Amino acid sequence: MRKLLVLVTVLVTTFALSSCSSGTNKPNSNVPDKPPASVHKVNAADYQNSYGSYVFRIAGGTVWCTLNGTPNFVVCEQNEVDVSYKIPETPSSCQGAWGYQGRLWANQPSMGKIADWYCAGGLYSDPAGAYDLPSGSAIQVGEITCYASDVVVRCDNLNGQYLALGSDVYGFSN
User: Fold this and answer.
1) Range of 42's domain?
2) Does 165 reside within a domain?
């Protein structure tokens, strides 16, 4: 009888504690919606750097992204000190920084996911001198469009996968 009482107590406690958790507490709960087709698109050439990539900042530089035309992908990143979300566990294959740089490919790469964290040994690009992408506007290079929503960036490919990054939010769709 005592074992049954302990089992029931454990089950009730587990159920009660699991009902306290909320799906809205996930890191991607504040990911901005995909922008409407009528969103203002900036001239990508205004954001092109000397390497042929397109670099822009969100909200003064806490998050910045680099769009590449060939191969078509975007890397969005931020400094470690600007992050307030819980950093995901670093995979054993990564010997660099994890959880500060995300990458989205236009199409399935030969290895890995279309949208995921990027194992980094340093900054992918330098945001110094990069222009801000105004909140509510978008930039498109190839098959990737990035949209600024306050202090969060959301980049989508034509297949509907996305990457979102801000100081307190991140999200990926594969």
Assistant:
1) 25-173
2) yes
Q: How many residues does the chain have?
A: 174
CA-to-CA distance for 147 and 40, rounded, in angstroms? 10
List all residues 6 or more positions away from 129 whose beta carbon is below 8 Å from its beta carbon. Answer: none
Whether 161 is covered by a domain: the verdict is: yes
Q: Is the pTM of this model over 0.85?
A: no
Q: Based on the structure, what is the number of domains in the chain?
A: 1
Query: Quick count: other Cβ atoms within 10 Å of Cβ 129?
Result: 8
Q: Which of 79, 83, 56 is nearest to 145 (CA)?
A: 56
Tens-digit pLDDT profile for residues 19-77 = 333 333 345 568 888 888 899 999 999 999 999 999 999 988 789 999 999 999 999 99
DSSP 27: G
Indicate if the alpha-carbon torsion angle 43, 122, 166, 110 is positive or negative.
positive
Please return the burial class of 119, using the count of CB atoms within 10 Å of its CB with bins 0-12, 13-18 and 19+.
middle
Quote the CA–CA distance of 47 and 66 in Å, as a whole number.
9
Of 171, 153, 27, 23, the closest CA to residue 86 belongs to 27
Beta carbons of 131 and 46 less than 8 angstroms apart: yes
